[in-house]
Amino acid sequence: DVFTALLADSVQAAVVGRPLTDEEQAFFKSKQRVPESILIARDGIALVVHPEHADSVIHLDKVKGIFTGTDSLWSQVQPGGSATKINVVFDNQGSCNARSLREKFGIETFPSWCFSEETTERVIAYVNTHPNAIGVISLSWISDAEDSTCAAYRKMIRPLGIVDPSNVIKPELARRPFQAYVFDGTYPLRRDVYYIRTGL
């Protein structure tokens, strides 16, 4: 919706989760416009579970299995996990978090156990009341320990650490959605944030 508004000139600036595509650049060029696309931040996609979830670590291959439709039970993705079905809840099916995961794992659509609660607040509330759920949220919602809202959310959920064997240093170490791991590139679920300006 944001990119549609940019192309329609309804808005002339936006903060979004991807740069302009070649087609979008060509469109603006045809209108004799030279938009700017500036990388302003790097964000992490946090996978969060119920605060009493027994295991807070998951392997990246199992994360892929959940989103590609291979693994649907906790017993398939974590040793000693229960045989209950995993429910994955997004903030919005059209969000940059959903798009980034589709691109990361090379998929077009998510399996049936993935759905949307429309807002991050509702995702956190859902995970807090459903022990079998995994929530998909932006790291920014839980990264500031000194912010009272972030602190309240952090008590309601538990972020999963992800083991990524492609990491050069300590590949067996689970990287959690912390700013330091996003910054050094070892947290595997990262996305860029861009400021796009199409106006004068």
Per-chain topology:
Elements: H1 2-7, E1 13-16, H2 22-30, E2 36-49, E3 57-59, H3 60-68, H4 74-77, E4 87-90, H5 96-105, E5 114-116, H6 120-129, E6 133-138, H7 148-156, E7 158-159, E8 161-163, E9 174-175, H8 179-184, E10 190-197
Parallel strand pairs: 3-8, 4-5, 4-6
Antiparallel strand pairs: 1-10, 2-6, 2-7, 2-10, 8-9
Outline type: elongated
Helix content: 25-40%
Q: What are the segments in which pLDDT stays under 50 over at least 5 consecutive residues?
A: none
Number of strand segments: 10
DSSP strand (E) fraction? 15-25%
Main beta sheet? 7 strands, mixed
In N-to-C order, the SSE pattern is HEHEEHHEHEHEHEEEHE
Number of helices: 8
What does this structure look like?
By secondary structure, the protein is α/β, with parallel strands linked by helices. 32% of the residues lie in helices and 24% in strands. The chain is built from eight helices and ten strands. Strands 1, 2, 4, 5, 6, 7 and 10 form a seven-stranded mixed beta sheet that branches. It is elongated. The two termini are 22 Å apart. The mean pLDDT is 90.
